Amino acid sequence: MPASLGADVPEALHICSPEIDSAPPPPPVFPSVDIDHIDVNSKCTITDNHLYRPGDSTIGGIFSLTHPHYKEHSFKKTPYKRYYSYFDLEQKNYQHVLAFIFAIHEINKNPGILSNITLGIHIHDNVFDSGCTSKAALDLLFTKQVNVLQFDRNKDVLSVIEGLTVKNSIQMATILNIYKISQFSYGSHKPTFSDKAHHPSLYWMAPSKTAMHKGIFQLLLYFRWTWIGLIASDDDDGEDFTQILSFLLEQNNICVAFVHRVTEMSLTDHKILTELNSALLSPEVNVIAVSGNSQSLFALEYLLDVYEFRMRHHIGKVWITTAQWDFTNTMREDSFCTATFQGALSFAGHKNVMKGFQDFLQTLELDEALLYFICIFWREAFQCCFPPENINKCKMCKGNEKLDSLSKFMFEMEMNTQSYNIYNAIYAIAHALDAVYMSRPKTMADKGQFKYMNVQPWQLHFFLKNINFNNSAMEEVSFVNGELSAAYDITNWVTFPNKSFLRVQVGSMSAAQEFTINQDAIVWNSKFNQTLPCSKCVEACPLGHSRIVRQGEPHCCYDCYPCPEDTISNQLDAVHCIKCPEDQYANKNKDWCIPKVITFLSYQEPLGIVLVSLAISLAIVTVLVIQIFLKNWNTPIVKANNHNLTCILLISIVLCYLSSLLFIGKPDKMTCLLRQMAFGVLFSVAITCMLAKTITVFLAFMAIQPGNKMRKWLGTKMAYSIVLSFSFIQLGICITWLSTSPPFPDVDMNSQAGLIIMECNEGSITMFYCVVGYVAFLAIISFTLAFSARNLPDAFNETKFITFSMLVFCSVWISFLAAYLSTKGKNTVAVEVFAILASNTGILACIFLPKCYIILLKPDLNSKHLVIDKRNYSI
């Protein structure tokens, strides 16, 4: 776990004393020294530890390198100073110092920028303490203290680079803003403090956290992780992380299973450890997003170490970490959680490979000042001692030890994200300073007087706000209104059994918030057998189902229900079922819409063929009956009951048979207009013919009574008047129908699943019922009169046959109504056609079959003598 120094550091040493020294130590001189003879007895400490190298202009740096742990006061006496018992080293943070020096070294050697100008450095260690941060800032700005309220400012410091925490950045900004000294924060970025009106001198080198939050959200959305945990440091950064991310996730149907806030002191809080322990063991939560730094998340690292190395328990999770947490920073190589962190995904500011940096580290020459500043790290990294330490217990430090011999847990040769930000910040300052010099009169440049120019810190801001340059990695670095246009890299941690690791870039979140990810390049935790991990409260709903949220539970915890009729869900875990388009229908599994089949009563299908054959056959039979009657036109049985009406009746029956053909085939505008009209008018003519025959029988019987005046009503004119008048009423109804709301071709997409039924829309259903009702009205009158006249004396009294025909007619159409309402689609049309054929056939058979029988088989009964005898007998 953390590298700690205890026995080697005297207990009496203290840091950040509240007493203000009379003057800071003078800048050291940097001659070439023999490392073997450096006296570090009073130098290798963390009290007022700073590194100074003079130059024409100085860039300050405040870094977090050592983390002391203080002894608690007994409160029995007034504490004089703060004492520590041991401290941890943030070993990898020493790369920040070397990256700082590397950038200054490059600029001072480069004749293309700041020619004849040398940049100096002044670096402090703030030991992760806010008080020391303020003290370090004052030490950078002031050279001596005259009295408590009067200082002489060090005018060489033009800019300051600092910070792993937002808290330290804001704390320093309150001091540096007074003197308009540009401040570059390389570790973290808080959007709420980007307002230039309140912090005009503060520049953020890290990408905006807003982009990171959206990147995490996009990552969860891409992999369909909807049940996640959040672990954050118990500070302002952690509060922002949990609040902003929770809001984003809630707006997009991603649930937070738990939120835990941890601090450095969480190891001593049994309740926090218990809750954190149960969260880590949750089987449903496979994805945990973490925000914090190595110090604040020490309790989490401790628990993970306990499970993997002491309990031999494999906690397989997908860790999504922010740029601030490098979990290798406080872990020893021999206890690195190889299985736990395998497959972790990290969001870190974009960086590029700096090849020259590795060469710089491999050829690094330590002078006295630099060795004094990093001696604690050097001693811990190479396990060596400086004189006059006890040389019997360890080897002596030579100063020429190679950094590339250290493991990645101790020091990485490749420039990390924070070091890359520091490097770019120094170059931004250099380019801005160069622009200030170039804006001065050319005569000064010709005389080489740049170093004597009195450049003020505030003069850099004009150029820094919109500066643009390419660094040595040929990557563009640009500021827009003081904001760095930067992206996030998404890296995948690949660990190996030998405790080594790799960071592999698998995606990015650009400054324009464009998210990209290469799923195939990701190595997942071994627990998931290299398959995409699932992190959900419940199993995903299968195709054909939708989610129903459980009562009183988060919306990510739900049950699955099959989709209703005519709806589908063609994706897993569908929120809602989708209704199929009108011309499609859902398949059996409710996961796909199938195009509906267009259907109508066709001439080609068996049912259509049967009905057409019946209609034509019966029409031919009727034509044969007409032919028989024409051949026997003058016989008594034909002439009886007005043979002209009989002929009209037979013609209307033929036409009724043929009108049924209008109902078969694909409906179009003409057939829709004609089918119901032809049916109504032709049936009205047929029934009025029978009605006229019945009325004629009544009048004939009454006319033979002595003194009855009905004889004048007898004759063909009376019969024709009845037929024409009643038929014209039906014709008038049909004309009204056509002129107001006529029938038209239509499609029915809902009556039968999977079918689009082509049909004729009746237009006005009221007019349709008027036509049908009028036919029914005529049929009822005809039946009533025929039934009343069935026993009147006449040799060939047709009223009996009309009674039977109307009885059959009414029975057929009453049955038709029940069948019509219970069928759908083309079967409805078939029922109507069958009713037309059946009722028409009933009229033909009941009235004309007996006559044809007599004409063809009993011609002896078809005689005038028999008619007279029959009438006399009846009378």
Keywords:
875 residues, alpha/beta, Rossmann fold, eight-stranded mixed beta sheet, six-stranded mixed beta sheet, 22 helices, rod-shaped, disordered N terminus
What would you note in describing this structure?
This protein is an alpha/beta fold and 875 residues long. The protein has 4 domains: 4-207 and 353-484, Rossmann fold, CATH 3.40.50.2300; 209-349 and 487-528, Response regulator (Rossmann fold, 3-Layer(aba) Sandwich), CATH 3.40.50.2300; 545-595, no CATH class; 606-850, Rhopdopsin 7-helix transmembrane proteins (Up-down Bundle), CATH 1.20.1070. 41% of the residues are buried.
Architecture blueprint of SSEs:
Layout lengths: L3 E2 L44 E4 L3 E7 L2 E5 L13 E6 L4 H16 L9 E7 L4 H12 E6 L2 E4 L3 E6 L3 H11 L5 E4 L16 E3 L4 H14 L4 E7 L2 H16 L3 E8 L7 H11 L6 E5 L6 H13 L7 E4 L16 H4 L3 E5 L5 H8 L5 H15 L1 E2 L9 E2 L20 H22 L3 H5 L14 H4 L3 E3 L5 E5 L2 E2 L3 E8 L5 E9 L5 E3 L27 E5 L8 E5 L4 E2 L9 E2 L4 E3 L6 E3 L1 E3 L6 H26 L4 H4 L3 H17 L9 H35 L12 H25 L3 E5 L6 E7 L3 H24 L10 H24 L3 H32 L6 H11 L1
Parallel strand pairs: 3-6, 3-9, 9-10, 10-11, 12-13, 12-14, 14-15, 15-16, 17-18, 31-33
Antiparallel strand pairs: 1-5, 2-6, 4-5, 7-8, 16-22, 19-20, 20-21, 22-23, 23-24, 25-26, 27-28, 29-30, 32-33
